[in-house]
Write a structure and sequence with these properties.
4-stranded mixed sheet, Endonuclease, Chain A
């Protein structure tokens, strides 16, 4: 994912970005475009574990409550990189984004 993003024409994301809301810790995300309030979390197979799934959903709820949007590409998305990059471009241009 890191190589795909770095080779793309997208603005460079912040890696391992700490999201804070009012100074309080919300989550650390794989990649973020802070000015756009957009996070990207790359979900590998371990995210299918029931306990991990619950924890991931709780994190998503916290991110959403803090006014962030999140996208969760998987390994399958890396087989269609153009579609994933198109999706990300759309999210970065969405109304209300910087």
């Amino acid at each position: 994912m890191r190589l795909l993003l770095s080779r793309s024409d997208l603005p460079a994301p912040a890696a391992q970005h700490v999201v804070r809301d009012g100074g309080g810790f919300v989550a650390r995300v794989d990649f973020a475009w802070p000015a756009h309030r957009l996070a990207l979390e790359y979900d590998g197979v371990w995210h299918g574990d029931p306990a991990r799934f619950r924890a991931d959903r709780a994190r998503l709820d916290r991110l959403t409550a803090a006014g962030r949007r999140a996208v969760f590409p998987t390994a399958a998305d890396l087989h269609r990189p153009d579609a994933l990059l198109l999706r990300l471009r759309g999210l970065l241009r969405a109304p209300g984004c910087a």
